[in-house]
Amino acid sequence: MLGFFMGAPVVPQNSLLHHDNSHLYCVHCNSPLHHPVIQDVIDSAYDRSIIRRSIDQVRDILNDPESNDIWWGQRGTESGISEIDELRDSDIDSVYQNAIGEVREGLSTYGLNGGHDLNGMIEKMFFQKMGRPPQHKKDVINFIAANNIKNYSNTNHHVGGLSSLKKMPGGAEDLPTSACAVGSALRGKPGSTCEACYADDGLMRLDNTQKAQWNNLLGLKNPHQYAAALAFQIKHHSEGDLVRLFGSGDIQSAHHFALLTDVARANPEKNFWLATREHNALKEYLDHHGMADDAIPDNLNVRMSTHYRGKHINESGRTFQSLLEHPNVTASSVNAAHHSDEVWSCPATDPHLPKNEQNCVTQNCNACWDPNVKWIDYTGHGSKRVHSDLTPDEVPRSEEARERTKQRIKMNQTAIPLDVFDGDIGPFSV
Hints:
Elements: H1 2-6, H2 36-47, H3 55-63, H4 70-73, H5 84-88, H6 94-107, H7 121-130, H8 137-146, E1 163-164, E2 171-173, H9 181-186, H10 207-219, H11 223-236, E3 242-245, H12 254-265, E4 271-276, H13 279-289, E5 300-305, H14 318-323, E6 329-333, E7 344-345, E8 375-377, H15 394-410
Helix pairs in contact: 3-10, 11-12, 12-13
């Protein structure tokens, strides 16, 4: 009997000797190690992409030149297997959801205080690793890409690594819609603004687009490196001085928002528009900093989106209303322009305009970036299947709102000068 206890099967170091797996864990599911037969099946499934992966495994998929159907893969299927509407509303596959969780955990290391000086930081990282300073912007571009810091295409030199926008001037920083916390909850809800997200349609589903968005997201696991790289990208992008955060995706946490305020401060010559449904994350950040004007930099306009189409912004709850008290926090809605004479209605969605005129530049509008424009309505934005939300009585009032907006634009009532489209930003005019 004494010999049995001296064998010490309960001592982890001796567990293999005594064929005791109780102290060993499965790397795939974090449970105690399974019977060898079961473990072989799990390992095989893991190799076939059934078991959820961490950031490293998802990155392997993105870096594989033969990988495809990434948008469908996030939803546990392949291109053409299911209806788009069904997949758009479905839950994200646990393979990718696990990676999203790891990203958010990494982001928590970027303190809510922010205050990091990002100017020249990526160049310092380059010097520390390469042993020499960068000689050219391309050196930094290659460094960012080679070290998986974030997405930065070697061929996308025109906008310096940011996404190009179809209807808008400037560039955008994008994330996959799979990582939208509030958006994911709203995705399948009838009447929500995320029910038919434009970012899950058309070209946004292409593999190159999805790879770029996921490389951005995974890079946030190391937020300080990411912030330094993003600040560099924005400083060197060449499409004027307007930047959108986000054309696709949303902030991941209050810590992520703190990071973006530092990016904006590092680029005072740029104007930023951040569209978000993450009202609670914004509240957490402002609760930490207080409602002081400088909690959000002057060149960053945060535009909170309502959750449901057709709703007046006053119907968006107490948190929403309290956040609007900050001078750099504004609002947006969808299909609600008929509610108020004060609302600005996006002129680019005028169905009477030719397709080539349905954009911000042709309409001379930059109101989205303007913190003095407190409420913008995007009637007609999104999938065509939600364009018919307006009642016959609401349609003429919505059209009147759009015409009022066009008149305001002609009177130059936006704070950001129109010559910003040529990259020459001047002082605010209002």
